[in-house]
From TrEMBL:
PROSITE patterns: PAC, PAS, RESPONSE_REGULATORY. NCBIfam families: sensory_box. Residues 138-211 form the PAS domain. Residues 5-118 form the Response regulatory domain. One of its GO terms (molecular function) is kinase activity. Residues 214-266 form the PAC domain. InterPro entries: BAT_GAF/HTH-assoc, CheY-like_superfamily, GAF, GAF-like_dom_sf, HTH_bacterioopsin, PAC, PAS, PAS-assoc_C. SMART domains: PAC, REC. It holds the Pfam family BAT. This is Bacterio-opsin activator.
Amino acid sequence: MANARALLVHPEEGSDRIETALGAAGFDVTRTDTAASAVAKATTGEYDCVVSEYALAGDDGVALATAIEESDAGVPVVMFTATDEEGVPEAAFENGVDRFLQKNGSASIDRLVSDVSTVCSGVSASETRQDVSDHEPTASEVTRAVEDAPIGISISDPDLPDYPLVYVNDAWEEHTGYPVEEALGRNPRFLQGPGTDPETVDEIAEAIGNEEEVTVEIRNYRRDGTPFWNELTVAPVYDEDGDLAHYVGFQNDISDRKEAERLAEQRAEKLATERRSLDRVLGRVNGLLSDISRILVENRDSGVISERVCEVIAGEPGYAGGWIGEVSSATGRLEIRAASGVSVEPGASYDVAETPAEVQEAIETEELHSGSIDDAADGPLEPKSAGGRRLLVVPLTYGDRQYGLLGIYGNGADVLARRERRVCESVGKMIANGLHSIETTEILTTDRVVELVVGIRDETAALARIADAVGGEVVHLGTTRLEDDECELYFRADGEGLDLDELASLPLVESMRTVSETNDGVSFAVTVTDSPPLTQLAAHGGVVTEATATGDEATLTIEAPPEHDVRSILDVFRDEYEGVELRSRVERESRDRTVAEFAAAVDERLTDRQRDALKTAELNGYFEWPRPVDGSEIADRMGITRQTFHQHLRAAERKLVEAYVDPRSDG
């Protein structure tokens, strides 16, 4: 290969044939005996290939290949050896040897020449080489190629003081913005600026001082002052006598790549920061959820639950403390039931208009709201006065029932961020669900109740419209909840010749079916698309024990715990209808506590279809003897097959018996 230089590392004996073969192939061959000498020569950058025997004086070819690889000289190594020691080929390839050949006569010499040619040129030995001797570029063509090259090329003269530029090509001018007349005669350091790394500058200077090639990424500045990243390679160029003639520089603008790397690093750091933040949030909220779940299971007193929840919040790292309060229906003020960790006293009462904006917004919208010390004014419950940096207000809502507000104060800048607010919203629902469960249990098990009789004189009320369509008084027998907001209402109407056809035409009625008919009256079920307010009372602490209606008005008898706020129950109806009045309020012993408990236990076990089958069977006298109807007739009324009816009924009967025999059974 013309002009290629090969370094042969081989004892003198046997080296002549190798030198002759490589020389005939066009290689300029230099031989040395020792690995130490070979490393010194191979790292100068003067050689295109190293050909080495394995057995060398005082060393071996694998150690030589390792040293060359560690020096980053980038010189390929071909090992041509007579050794047959086990493991040598593997060790050679693991330590930087590109080709490994066993000596085996003239055929192996020919293979050596082919492999050395391949590693030096990067061209496969099997690829056909063309004769290009008549197509060598002229000096002017080489000059034009350099001038038009897409990368910046500059030449400095080391014979002149300070190594000034004596040539720059068009791409160099375009990259830097300096015209040739301003660049020539100056050391290229004028491209440096305030953002240039001094260590990189020292690295370039050291390489030039040692007449070594160097490649760096350096921050340079264009003529208009804008910075750019320059991938700069500086290499010495020698004349025919081997003396230093020039330094050539190759400049490649890599600003886009560096910007992409910067953005990638920023993104990676952002993701790492988010992950650390998420880990902190998960650690905080996991402990919070676990502790609050335990509090709700272990306690049946709403006051104790509120106190314990606030204590848990105050004990969590990142939280300063918290409070739980409720807007009084009597005074309209925010009453604090419990507090811990902050300068808010249990029993304190605040005018809602004086509380932080996030408290007022949470009360008005029944949605979570937050604020920080940066945008807060002085006043009660503000983060600054309470001892925190951020305030998150979480409504404690179960269905339409409001159990108050939970205020959480964070004492860190990254506390109560978006993800954490979502979890706190779930915590609020969990607390409200627990308080509702306690309240419902109190309603069913209390020894005393308040009996309310409520009248609704509004013809648009659902019960009144149904009674008007029937043409007489209706008695509400019960309700079955369906999917979404739908429900099925059961009624009885007394009298002969009642016509239920008009019911189907009511806008609020989706479907109607007759459950049972006798000479004295009819029982029927109505599916409505929007549940009437009476179905919402459980979420407000009330239970409907009796309800009747005519076309003009509806009358409901409601039971609630003595300490419950009667106004909130009345507001359920006043929000929907006109003419709502409290006709009587009587506190008495609970007559139906045991029955209510049993009914609630059974109701929790039954599915909608099982409940429907049981109620329809009872209303049609299926459990009387002799039976006035059979299973087929009831199945027809329900719109199902006889087998399906009996399947649902048997399951309901089994759960009914289990609730009676073993009240602790899960059914």
